[in-house]
Amino acid sequence: MSLRELLVLGSASAVPTRTRNHNGYLLRWDGHGLLFDPGEGTQRQMTLAGVSATDLTWICVTHFHGDHCLGVPGVVQRIARDGVEHEVNAAFPASGTEYWRRLRHAAAFHDTAVIRERPVSGARARLDTGDAPFTLTACRLDHPVESYGYRLEEPDGVTMLPAELAARGVRGPLVRRLREEGVVTTPDGRTVTLEECAVRRPGQKVAFVMDTGVCAAAYELAEGVDMLIIESTYLDEDRRLAAERAHLTAGQAGAVAAAGGVRHLVLTHFSERYRAEDEERFRRQAAGPFRGEITLVRDLDRVPLPRRRPAARPAGG
C-alpha cells in the first residue's frame, strides 16, 4: 500500500525552542523519501520519528541559512554509516555549492559514493527524477541569499470506464493498448479513442515554500497543489519586520494558498519571538483569506496528503 505523508522533524525558524527543533521535513511518497531543509538536530529527530537513513532518496535544500542546512553533515554521515546502497539525490542552489561541500565534508568519516549532487540555478529548473513517479521543479524565491522553493507533481492518470469499454467492444489486450496508445481498432472495425472510455485522474501535487518575501514564484509553486507547506514566520501585526527580512506572515501564507486553490495549507517555520499561546493566532490569520484545511504543525507531526481529487473531465479534454 502506497504511503504519502509529510513527517515534520522540526518547525522553528532561526532559533530552536524547547518545543520546536530547527527545520526538517520528510515527504514520504510511494517508497521515496524527500528530506527538505535538514536543520541542526535532524538526525536525532529522525531517530525519534522512527526514520532510517535508508528511507531517504532526496535531500532538498532551499538555501544555506543555518536553520535550513546545518543538519546536512549528520544526515550524510548517517547515510554513509548505515551503508545506504541506493542513490540519494541532493538538490541545492548552485550559488551555494561551496557551502554544500563544506557541510558534506564537515568532519572526518568513511565517505559514501551514493550521493548525487543536483545543483539548481536560474529562475526555474526541472530536476531529473529518473524513473521516480513524480517530477520535481525548483523556483527561485525572494530572500537575501538565493533560495528556492520546490514543487512535486505526479503525472495525471486515467480511470477506465468498464461500461464504455464493453459498449464499444474493447476487451482483453485492447484495453491496455487503448490506455497506452490512445486509440484502437476493434475486431468489428470500429475506431475507439481513449476519451470515449476513460476519465482523467488528476495527479497529486505538493509545494514546499520556505524563506521568502511575497513574490510571484511563491504563487507559481502553490498553484493547484493538494498540499502547500509554507513558512509563516510572523504574525500579521509584524508584517513590516517580515518585509525587512524577506519572510511571510500567516496572513500572507494564507493569501498564497487561497490564490492557488490549495486544498491543505500547512503552516511552519515559526519565529521564537512568539509564545505557545500565540500559536492559534497564526491559524486564525491564515484563515482570513484561506477557507480550506489548515494544519499548524508541531514537531513529529504526521500529515497525510488529502485524498485524490475526483476524476472530473474526459481523458482527452
TrEMBL record:
Lineage of the species this protein comes from: Bacteria, Bacillati, Actinomycetota, Actinomycetes, Streptosporangiales
Active-site residues, Swiss-Prot/TrEMBL: 67
The record's free-text note on cofactor binding: Binds 2 Zn(2+) ions.
Family membership noted in the UniProt record: Belongs to the RNase Z family.
GO molecular function per UniProt: 3'-tRNA processing endoribonuclease activity; zinc ion binding
InterPro entries to which the protein is assigned, alphabetical: Metallo-B-lactamas (IPR001279), RibonucZ/Hydroxyglut_hydro (IPR036866), RNase_Z/BN (IPR013471)
Cofactor(s) named in the record: Zn(2+)
Pfam families: Lactamase_B, Lactamase_B_2
Protein name: Ribonuclease Z
Subunit-level organization: Homodimer.
Record-listed Zn(2+) 1 binding positions: 63, 65, 143, 211
Protein keywords: Endonuclease, Hydrolase, Metal-binding, Nuclease, tRNA processing, Zinc
Keyword Metal-binding tagged: yes
Primary gene name: rnz
Binding-site residues for Zn(2+) 2, renumbered to this chain: 67-68, 211, 269
EC numbers, comma separated: 3.1.26.11
Organism superkingdom: Bacteria
Function: Zinc phosphodiesterase, which displays some tRNA 3'-processing endonuclease activity. Probably involved in tRNA maturation, by removing a 3'-trailer from precursor tRNA.
Domain Metallo-beta-lactamase: 20-106, 199-270
Catalytic reaction equation(s): Endonucleolytic cleavage of RNA, removing extra 3' nucleotides from tRNA precursor, generating 3' termini of tRNAs. A 3'-hydroxy group is left at the tRNA terminus and a 5'-phosphoryl group is left at the trailer molecule
